[in-house]
Design goal:
The complex is a heterotrimer of chains A (380), B (443) and C (166). By secondary structure, chain A is an alpha+beta fold. Chain A has 15 helices and 9 strands. Chain A has 2 domains: 53 residues, no CATH class; 238 residues, Cytochrome-c3 Hydrogenase, chain B (Orthogonal Bundle), CATH 1.10.645.10. In chain A, 46% of the residues lie in helices and 13% in strands. Helix content of chain B is 65%, strand content 0%. In chain B, helix 4 runs antiparallel to helix 5 and helix 8 packs across helix 11. Classes of the chains: A alpha+beta (380), B mainly alpha (443), C mainly alpha (166).
């Protein structure tokens, strides 16, 4: 099987396998692979017989860099992994280091962290919604989704000065106090948002074409999902009710009341429904949290120079895309010995082959979109 | 004046003039339809659309045309040069020829053929070759597959659209475009109200005929198969694009003529007069419409942020008022002769615009069909529905004629109700998409 | 006068395209010339005031049957990008036979030339569409129905054969 390095675009390789089989190369530059992902498909006519994802085009050596930065210096780097949900990355990292230090963020910081993380979950799901719908051909939902995301990003910008790579949290708590009007703005956003989610649903959920393009496409059953280590909405749509916010609560999630949406079949339509419902539940958490932010300090006493005692910790949070885990090994110095990130998109992408087998070529794009990957996280 | 022209040429002068006008205006019109589409798309997507090139983006089509003309002309190596050259030209020529049979008004028609409607369909099926030869001439495997798919789609939906048309033809009794409109005038009702299911079938069929969303898989950017237009750049691509929009206007023209009353105003039989004046109430509508739009433009003028936009908005308002004056003036005696022509052209263009708006609206609302779902929809839903529709409408007409049924409204309602039932049955029956991916067994 | 010019134009086009069709190396070019031959024939129909035949020739023959031809040509030629080199060792014999046939046809037409109706003298009582419809559905109803049953059988056969492959 010849391996051609390509500059992009679709190319037919010259090796022909079997009667009708060809190998089709998608990417790394392609409008629908959501980043620099290269997918090699072995096709029998229209059906995908086998597939291979070739990653690494966005590898920046983040984990190696971590070994040469102090713990606080590394915090901005984690935002750049899943750049669509930077706040969650920061939350996971800060909580992992806090665990290593044996410190705990004060209650006020935990609640504000929860609010910002849930807003970030909504923003990340809005990007997913817009781009996934765009890949399937619905030109309009992406603009509506980004309109709402704009409101969230404005809140982030007012809070910490950045919209995308926010570095919102610090190890031990928060650096910035919430600004005047933070609660009102979050509450206003949440109040408006319910109607907007209904608007997206009217465009897509009952639409015959949408259902036809997503129902039965990319089925992943429960055993396969668990065996592959898939987490997040993909796992929940395959029938397994597992969410780290309920299973191993962190930040302030144990104080709030919310549902874990689950669907039985594990096709693209189910994943769509799960994420739509998750947006609603995130809004519910935000409303509960913002109604009652405790007063008090925002930063725990961790000192300026962080030297965690030697040891290791694995701390995982429920990022919008799945279980985001940080495995940090400390050797007692100011720089970590090893930081290993368990990116949800990387693990979830391994389910792609299973989902794509037997699918038509036109469905491959839908399947990539429904896993919701971010290449920054897959490659680090 | 007419004695100066040799009698052999006289009957050909007016059609040639009309033809020249159409061919001259059409590219510009198609360009502005593209701009309209972008503006409407932007409006539905909560944004503004082209605003920079000219006030409110009004010069955008000219900029695009200029850019396309100046682009490098790339011909793929090993491509069939002659076919590569001819294919886009074929598409455009066929699209333009179809305008010969299109009645823009009671007098404005290049040629009133006995078989005008079939002529347009014939020319439309010739347009398919522009796509097929274009895909083949590109010497690219995926362009060819995209072209063949597109052609298969066009051929299938042409059948469906024709079946929708036939149900209206049963009512009209003639294939000549002028006769069809006259039949609607004689029966006093637009055919859409008598055979709405036929209109619906034609609507879906014409969207697929013109390769518009949700049936635009062969030319979508995010799909793997690149589509027949990939290797065409610059002006060749512009020709394909032009042919697509020209085909859209043709489809709108056919729908308008057959289902929406052509150049007739709403309620053509209603002669209620306006406050005791000799002017008919409904004839005053165009003038009133333009006055309303003109006043709206004037009301928007102060709110424009930039000076040039203010000027252009005021100019547009002024133009609307001028048009309103023209519409009103032709109602009165010395200019009466032009009334049918001017008002006919107005109503025709208004209906075509409404139909095109529906095209655009549908494009921005729905996702795209996958190719097998598209073919399934055409063959297993639209064509059976069209066939049964023809049968039911035919039976209804025979019943009406033989039993001297005096209640055409009731028969229209009953026919439509029967067709709704059939459509629901067909939907439940055959259109459920089969699961695209079988879960891998024993992996 | 005009009809003579039109006939000459269409006739030259038809015969010329036919000659081009059989002499092209590239099979797709041959198909395109067949299309122009059929279009020229349709033009002759139109000049004989048979407008229904004109449009139906284009819709069915050119827009349906030739599309099928072109599809098959392109699908079969897909991975074989080489233009097949046609070989023809029977040119002489074919030429002689064609000449003999042409002489026979010309002779037959010459003998019977007084019996052919003059085109300008024909006045159609009904428009062409009505005339064709009348003939098909009244006088020739049975052959029409038999032909449609034949077509249905062919369609079903094609679907069954293709389905087995999928």
């Amino acid at each position: 099987m010849t391996d051609t390095r390509t500059n992009g675009g679709s190319q037919v390789e010259t090796t022909v396998l079997g009667a009708d089989e060809i190998i089709l190369n998608m990417g790394p530059q392609h409008p629908s692979t959501h980043g620099v992902l290269r997918v090699k498909l072995k096709l029998d006519g229209e059906r995908v017989v086998d597939s291979e994802c070739i990653i690494g085009y966005l590898h920046r050596g983040v984990e190696k860099i971590a070994e040469h930065r102090s713990y606080q210096q590394f915090a901005p780097y984690v935002d750049r992994m899943d750049y669509c949900a930077a706040v969650s990355n920061g939350l996971g990292y800060c909580e992992a280091v806090e665990k290593l230090l044996g410190a705990e963020a004060p209650p006020r910081a935990r609640v504000v962290r929860t609010i910002l993380t849930e807003l970030q979950r909504i923003a990340s799901h809005l990007i997913w919604l817009g781009t996934h719908a765009l890949d399937i051909g619905a030109l309009t939902p992406v603009f509506y989704a980004f309109r709402e995301r704009e409101e969230i990003l404005k809140i982030f910008e007012k809070y910490c000065g950045a919209r995308l790579t926010t570095h919102a949290f610090r190890i031990g708590g928060l650096q910035y106090e919430t600004y005047d009007g933070f609660e009102e703005e979050v509450k206003r956003f949440c109040d408006d948002f319910a109607a907007k989610v209904d608007e997206y649903e009217t465009l897509l959920t009952e639409n015959r074409i949408w259902v036809g393009r997503t129902k039965g496409v990319g089925i992943l059953n429960t055993e396969d999902a668990i065996a592959l280590g898939v987490t997040g909405p993909v796992l929940r749509a395959s029938g397994m009710k597992w969410d780290l916010r309920k299973a191993t609560p962190y930040a302030a999630y144990d104080q709030y009341d919310f549902e874990i949406p689950t669907r039985p079949t594990g096709d693209t339509y189910d994943r769509y429904l799960v994420r739509m419902e998750e947006m609603r539940q995130s809004r519910r958490i935000c409303l509960q949290a913002v109604a009652n932010i405790p007063t008090g300090p925002i930063m725990a006493k961790v000192g300026k120079v962080l030297k965690p005692p030697p040891g290791e910790v694995y701390h995982a949070i429920e990022a919008p895309k799945g279980e985001l885990g940080y495995y940090i090994v400390s050797d007692g110095t100011t720089q970590p010995y090893r930081v290993r990130v368990r990116p949800p998109s990387f693990i979830n992408l391994q389910a792609f082959n299973k989902m794509a087998r037997g699918a038509l070529v036109a469905d491959v794009v839908a399947i990539i979109g429904t896993i919701d990957i971010v290449l920054g996280e897959v490659d680090r | 004046m007419t004695h100066l022209i040799p009698p052999a040429i006289l009957p050909y002068i007016l059609p040639v003039v009309y033809g020249a006008v159409i061919v001259a205006i059409l590219p510009l019109l198609a360009g502005y339809i593209v701009l309209l589409e972008r503006k409407i798309m932007a409006d539905m997507q909560v944004r503004l659309g082209p605003m920079r090139v000219g006030p409110h983006g009004l010069l955008q089509p000219l900029a695009d045309a200029l850019k396309l003309l100046l682009k490098e002309d790339i011909v793929p190596r090993h491509a069939d040069r002659f076919m590569f050259f001819v294919a886009p030209i074929l598409s455009v020529t066929m699209a333009l020829i179809a305008y010969a049979a299109m009645p823009f008004g009671p007098a404005f028609q290049v040629a009133d053929l006995n078989v005008g409607l079939l002529f347009i369909f014939a020319v439309g099926s010739l347009g398919i070759y522009g796509i097929v030869l274009g895909g083949w001439a590109s010497n690219s495997h995926y362009s060819l597959i995209g072209a063949l798919r597109s052609a298969a789609q066009l051929v299938s939906y042409e059948t469906a659209a024709a079946l929708g048309i036939v149900s209206a033809l049963l009512l009209a009794g003639s294939l000549s475009m002028k006769e069809i409109v006259r039949a609607q005038f004689d029966q006093g009702v637009w055919f859409i109200f008598v055979v709405p299911v036929g209109f619906f079938i034609y609507l879906v069929g014409s969207i697929a005929e013109t390769n518009r969303a949700p049936f635009d898989l062969p030319e979508a950017e995010s799909e793997l198969v690149a589509g027949y237009m990939t290797e065409y750049s610059g002006f060749r691509w512009a020709l394909y694009f032009l042919s697509e929009y020209a085909n859209m206007v043709i489809a709108a023209g056919i729908a308008t003529t057959l289902f929406l009353g052509g150049w007739l105003r709403p309620f053509p039989g209603n002669h209620q007069h306006l406050f005791g004046t000799p002017v008919e109430l409904l004839d005053a509508l165009p003038a009133l419409l333009f006055v309303a739009v003109g006043l709206y433009c004037f009301s928007l003028t102060p709110r424009q942020p930039v000076q040039i936009q203010k000027i252009v908005m005021a100019a547009v308002g002024g133009a609307c008022l001028v048009l309103a004056a023209v519409m009103a003036v032709v109602l009165f005696p010395p200019f009466d002769v032009a009334r049918d022509g001017v008002h006919g052209a107005f109503w025709f263009l208004a209906k075509v615009t409404a139909y095109l708006y529906t095209f655009l609206w549908i494009r921005f609302t729905f996702p795209r069909y996958r190719f097998d779902q598209l073919m399934r929809l055409g063959w297993r839903f639209l064509i059976p529905l069209g066939l049964i529709n023809v049968i039911v409408v035919g039976v209804s007409i025979v019943v009406q004629q033989n039993w001297e049924w005096k209640h055409p409204v009731v028969s229209a309602v009953v026919t439509t109700a029967i067709m709704f039932g059939v459509a629901l049955w067909l939907t439940e029956e055959g259109v459920k998409p089969e699961p695209a991916a079988q879960p891998a067994d024993g992996e | 006068m005009l009809d003579k010019i039109l006939f000459a134009f269409f006739a030259v086009l038809a015969v010329g395209s036919a000659i081009m069709m059989i002499t092209r190396r590239n099979i797709v070019h041959g198909a395109v010339y067949l299309i122009t031959t059929l279009l020229a024939t349709a033009g002759i129909f139109l000049s004989l005031q048979a407008e229904f035949l004109f449009v139906v020739q284009i819709i069915l023959y050119v827009g349906g049957i030739m599309v099928l031809f072109v599809f098959v040509i392109m699908l079969v030629n897909l991975d074989v990008a080489v233009r097949l080199v046609q070989f023809n060792r029977q040119g002489l014999l074919a030429g002689v036979l064609a000449l003999v046939l042409a002489v026979q046809i010309f002779f037959a037409l010459w003998i019977g030339r007084s019996g052919l109706p003059h085109p300008a003298a024909r006045m159609m009582p009904l428009k062409n569409t009505e005339a064709v419809g009348d003939a098909l559905f009244q006088h020739y109803m049975l052959p029409f129905e038999i032909a449609s049953v034949l077509l249905l059988v062919a369609m079903i056969g094609a679907v069954v054969m293709a389905k087995r492959r999928v």
